[in-house]
Amino acid sequence: MSGGDGAIPDLPGTWRVADADTVAITAAAADGVVLPGATEPLDGTADVRPADGAPSVMVAVGERVVEIARRTDDYALRVRDPRAVTRTAFDGVPAWDFDPAAVVTGRFTPYDAPRRIAVDAVVAGLQHFPTAVGEVAFTYRGTAQRLVALAGKDGGLSLHFRDATSGDTTYGGGRILRTDDPDADGAVLVDLNRTLNLPCAFTAYATCPLPPAGNRLDVAVEAGERTPPRPDLS
Asked: Which end of the chain is more exposed for a tag (fewer CB within 10 A), N or C?
């Protein structure tokens, strides 16, 4: 998304980057563009200011929702259309059967203080800056493993990793496992059956982060979600 004339195919009005921190939306009331918190359609020009790392700004356009996202110094529009084939053709996410051996107890070692780290994104040139809070060590398939743990959005830990299945039976950009908070002694349940895909596994238009450096398991984690099919849009 850039300055330009602001015209976006199949969207009413104009949507353009006004300055480094602002996206300007111009629409007539008949366009049906409704800003967050508003009860009536926009009639004129309004500025929105998405922040990097913060929730995106969601703008209603009829039955669609336009997500305005900021990633570092770039902006993107995602159109969430309930009639899109990616939704209407969706019939579930393939996953391995539950494996009791994929449920292990890990040991969380916190850092002296949380660390803001930089990780690349699936889109070249973009970066994310999550907060790393420590490391989780565990044994899986007889092999000792260690992962940098990120702060969970609603508590707990987030383990974002690749393994020997990545790019083969699972998405190449990695998967994510969310855990509960560790116990007082650092014990944390690592249930790899709950390993999930990130949005980038489902669409080429996501800007997901890649795993932190070193977060690659040298074994195949055949547990949790596998690579989902993408509908043929041709």
From this structure: C
